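Before relying on records like the one below, remember that each one covers exactly one chain. Contacts with other chains, cofactors or solvent are not represented anywhere in the record.
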Amino acid sequence: MVIAGRVVLIHGFWSSSATWDGLARVLEADPKLADFSWHRYGYPSPKLWVPLMPLRTPDYDDIAQALGSFLDALVPEGGGLAFVTHSQGGLILQRYLAWMLDEGRGQDLARIRSILMLACPHEGSDYLRSLRTAAGFGFHPQGKTLRQFDVSIAAARRKVLTQIVNATKVSARECPIPVHVYAGDRDNVVKRVSAQGTFPKAGVLPGGHSSIIDPELAGSTTAATISRHLVADFSATPPPSPAAPSGPGRGPVTITGSSGFQVGDNNIQVNS
């Protein structure tokens, strides 16, 4: 059986699409994934943020909705879709999924067959919290959302858990999708309790916050883990799409033992 699909890679905070260079080379060379195509979603995440500049730094909602435009333009309809995210990229993906559900577009998510989030700060990060505060990260459009117990992050995660992870059918407001989350065993930026959150399909991979996606790290199993999940999720039977509702006048109408009947606003006389 040929397994084919499209995979979108989403980088994290203070990063760029180039962060995937090493891992992407390994995944693209994997014979089990030979029929997959790979797409990198990039967005501005500058280290220096200065208020009142002509160009502002986009926040999570900006980036999430721009992801929708990216998919419409560069990842055409048809075929299965998967996401692999690193760090903040997982929060952006969750914001996109929550936005789609709020818009009543759960059925449009049915083509997503697999989601893998690596070192995603579901519960925020307390790493160098005092230094981040002193540096003004509390005002950075992206950095401020990385604080612990952020309300907007919790709201998006709750939607993903209830309307995607635990969903049982495809509808306007829900869509079941396999979601796999992993922490790095040496990650001191996003610790295991935050990276795993309350997701049921959670694990630990070798590496720190950045090296979890470095295939040259000694003992790295990240590429093999991604490959295993993609093959398994794309081989599984996709959830059924909802049947089209039957409207007025659809389907056969059988009438017996009558000399007249009404359809809509029209009276029809039958002479026997």
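The longest helix spans residues 60-74.
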